[in-house]
Specification:
The chain has 168 residues and is mainly α. It is 39% helix and 0% strand. It has a domain of 81 residues. This is HMG box domain-containing protein.
């Protein structure tokens, strides 16, 4: 199986030292080393985050097998740098690779996820997953409930003398 990227979606600048064809078959892509946090160079200039601000006491959820695989895949630098910034494309690529993993390899990641859950449980014994309430969703639901008893508004016709027709 060979993976190729559309030049308009993932432009790669020309470099005469690089090979003309990049082999992204599962066999070549899956040859990556596990990298520890200490070995990963930190980027000095950080971008402002659009994520919700978590309080200092927030305990993250334990990672599942795919999340562990994804983070290891990114840290091993198996993906060209210009694609790495585009998380949508990156997730699609990693998702395809994840789906094509051999069962033995996938089992390895499942075992690592169980191990990560056990570590999480020992580190945070009282932690329980409790999804937070989305304030916007609650407000939307309340508005919907208020309007439930009201009859729907009548539609106005552009030409009141013309008969009503159903448009498709």
């Amino acid at each position: 199986m060979t993976y190729s990227f559309d030049a308009e979606l993932t432009p790669i600048p020309y470099n005469p030292d690089s090979p003309s064809v990049v082999d992204l078959s599962p066999e070549s892509v899956l040859r990556f080393e596990l990298v520890s946090e200490e070995e990963v160079p930190r980027i000095s200039a950080t971008r402002p985050s659009h994520a919700k601000k978590r309080d200092a006491g927030h305990i993250p959820r334990p990672p599942n097998a795919f999340i562990l695989f994804r983070s290891s895949f990114i840290k091993s630098e198996s993906v060209p740098g210009n694609i790495e910034g585009n998380h949508s494309t990156l997730s699609k690529i990693i998702g395809i690779v994840w789906k094509t993993l051999p069962p033995a390899e996938r089992e390895l990641w499942e075992k690592r996820a169980v191990q990560a859950q056990a570590e999480h449980r020992t580190r945070y014994p009282d932690w329980r997953f409790r999804p937070g309430t989305n304030v916007d969703a609650i407000a939307k639901r309340k508005t919907k409930d208020k309007n439930k008893d009201r009859p729907p508004p009548e539609r106005r016709r552009r030409n009141p003398t013309a008969p009503a027709t159903k448009s498709l």
